[in-house]
Amino acid sequence: MQRAWMQVRSADIDLRQKLPTLRLLFTNDGPTPANIVLATVWYTLEDPFKRLREGEHPKQQSKDEGYGLGTVSSHGATEVYIEAKDWLNWKAQVHEGYTVAFHGFLTYRDIFLNEHKTQWCYYMVDELDVAPCPLGNYAM
User: Fold this and answer.
1) How confident is the model at residue 4 (pLDDT cuts 50, 70, 90)?
2) What's the whole-model pTM score?
3) Domain regions of the chain by residue span
Protein backbone atom coordinates (compact mmCIF):
# COMPACT_ATOMS: atom_id res chain seq x y z
CA MET A 1 0.00 0.00 0.00
CA GLN A 2 1.33 3.42 -0.93
CA ARG A 3 1.00 5.25 2.37
CA ALA A 4 3.02 6.57 5.29
CA TRP A 5 4.12 4.14 8.03
CA MET A 6 5.24 5.91 11.23
CA GLN A 7 7.07 4.18 14.07
CA VAL A 8 9.56 4.78 16.87
CA ARG A 9 12.91 3.71 15.45
CA SER A 10 14.90 4.18 18.66
CA ALA A 11 14.95 5.74 22.11
CA ASP A 12 17.76 6.61 24.48
CA ILE A 13 18.56 8.76 27.48
CA ASP A 14 20.71 11.76 26.68
CA LEU A 15 22.82 12.84 29.66
CA ARG A 16 24.61 15.61 27.74
CA GLN A 17 21.73 17.99 28.40
CA LYS A 18 21.26 20.03 31.57
CA LEU A 19 18.67 17.49 32.75
CA PRO A 20 18.42 13.81 31.74
CA THR A 21 16.44 13.75 28.52
CA LEU A 22 14.55 10.98 26.77
CA ARG A 23 15.27 11.15 23.01
CA LEU A 24 12.76 9.48 20.71
CA LEU A 25 13.48 9.00 17.00
CA PHE A 26 10.29 8.74 14.92
CA THR A 27 10.57 7.54 11.33
CA ASN A 28 8.26 7.31 8.35
CA ASP A 29 9.13 4.09 6.50
CA GLY A 30 6.41 4.58 3.90
CA PRO A 31 6.75 5.86 0.34
CA THR A 32 4.55 8.93 0.95
CA PRO A 33 4.59 11.72 3.57
CA ALA A 34 2.91 11.46 6.99
CA ASN A 35 0.89 14.61 7.65
CA ILE A 36 -0.34 16.26 10.85
CA VAL A 37 1.90 14.00 12.95
CA LEU A 38 1.25 14.16 16.70
CA ALA A 39 3.24 12.28 19.34
CA THR A 40 1.70 11.74 22.78
CA VAL A 41 3.86 10.51 25.65
CA TRP A 42 3.01 9.01 29.05
CA TYR A 43 5.18 7.47 31.73
CA THR A 44 4.21 4.89 34.32
CA LEU A 45 5.69 2.70 37.04
CA GLU A 46 4.61 -0.55 35.41
CA ASP A 47 4.13 -2.28 32.08
CA PRO A 48 1.41 -0.12 30.49
CA PHE A 49 0.35 -2.74 27.98
CA LYS A 50 -0.53 -5.32 30.61
CA ARG A 51 -3.43 -3.15 31.73
CA LEU A 52 -4.26 -1.94 28.22
CA ARG A 53 -4.70 -5.58 27.15
CA GLU A 54 -7.17 -5.95 30.03
CA GLY A 55 -9.02 -2.77 28.99
CA GLU A 56 -7.73 -0.64 31.88
CA HIS A 57 -5.43 2.35 32.03
CA PRO A 58 -2.03 2.06 33.74
CA LYS A 59 -1.82 3.13 37.38
CA GLN A 60 0.34 6.07 38.47
CA GLN A 61 0.50 7.44 34.98
CA SER A 62 1.34 10.97 34.02
CA LYS A 63 0.77 12.50 30.64
CA ASP A 64 3.34 14.73 29.07
CA GLU A 65 2.20 17.29 26.52
CA GLY A 66 1.55 16.26 22.94
CA TYR A 67 4.23 17.10 20.41
CA GLY A 68 3.07 18.44 17.04
CA LEU A 69 5.61 17.22 14.51
CA GLY A 70 4.03 18.56 11.33
CA THR A 71 4.83 16.57 8.20
CA VAL A 72 7.42 13.78 8.09
CA SER A 73 8.63 13.13 4.56
CA SER A 74 8.76 9.75 2.86
CA HIS A 75 11.57 7.73 4.48
CA GLY A 76 12.19 10.73 6.74
CA ALA A 77 12.74 11.07 10.47
CA THR A 78 12.20 13.52 13.30
CA GLU A 79 13.28 13.57 16.95
CA VAL A 80 11.54 14.56 20.16
CA TYR A 81 13.47 15.44 23.32
CA ILE A 82 11.64 15.20 26.66
CA GLU A 83 13.38 16.59 29.75
CA ALA A 84 13.03 14.80 33.08
CA LYS A 85 12.40 17.98 35.07
CA ASP A 86 8.70 17.33 35.73
CA TRP A 87 8.83 13.55 35.73
CA LEU A 88 9.35 10.94 38.41
CA ASN A 89 12.82 10.57 39.79
CA TRP A 90 13.71 7.83 37.31
CA LYS A 91 16.92 6.71 38.92
CA ALA A 92 15.40 6.28 42.39
CA GLN A 93 12.36 4.48 41.00
CA VAL A 94 14.49 2.02 39.02
CA HIS A 95 16.70 1.34 42.07
CA GLU A 96 13.57 0.68 44.15
CA GLY A 97 12.59 -2.05 41.72
CA TYR A 98 9.90 -0.26 39.73
CA THR A 99 9.64 -0.50 35.98
CA VAL A 100 9.56 3.01 34.58
CA ALA A 101 7.89 2.84 31.17
CA PHE A 102 7.50 5.57 28.55
CA HIS A 103 4.69 4.92 26.10
CA GLY A 104 2.26 6.63 23.83
CA PHE A 105 0.82 7.03 20.38
CA LEU A 106 1.82 8.54 17.07
CA THR A 107 -1.21 9.72 15.12
CA TYR A 108 -0.95 10.96 11.55
CA ARG A 109 -2.77 11.21 8.25
CA ASP A 110 -1.68 9.66 5.00
CA ILE A 111 -1.95 11.36 1.58
CA PHE A 112 -5.50 10.00 1.27
CA LEU A 113 -6.42 11.85 4.54
CA ASN A 114 -6.96 8.57 6.42
CA GLU A 115 -5.89 8.71 10.06
CA HIS A 116 -3.46 6.09 11.41
CA LYS A 117 -2.15 5.38 14.90
CA THR A 118 0.99 3.62 16.09
CA GLN A 119 1.30 2.57 19.74
CA TRP A 120 4.82 2.41 21.19
CA CYS A 121 6.58 1.69 24.49
CA TYR A 122 10.07 1.77 26.00
CA TYR A 123 11.14 1.07 29.59
CA MET A 124 14.19 1.95 31.66
CA VAL A 125 16.66 -0.91 31.95
CA ASP A 126 18.72 1.21 34.36
CA GLU A 127 19.24 4.93 34.86
CA LEU A 128 21.26 5.18 31.65
CA ASP A 129 19.44 2.94 29.19
CA VAL A 130 16.00 2.17 27.76
CA ALA A 131 14.73 -0.83 25.78
CA PRO A 132 11.56 -1.57 23.80
CA CYS A 133 8.67 -3.13 25.71
CA PRO A 134 7.76 -6.63 24.47
CA LEU A 135 4.53 -5.43 22.80
CA GLY A 136 5.56 -1.88 22.24
CA ASN A 137 5.68 -0.59 18.68
CA TYR A 138 2.85 -1.52 16.40
CA ALA A 139 0.33 0.03 14.07
CA MET A 140 -3.28 -0.04 15.17
Assistant:
1) very high
2) 0.78
3) 6-139
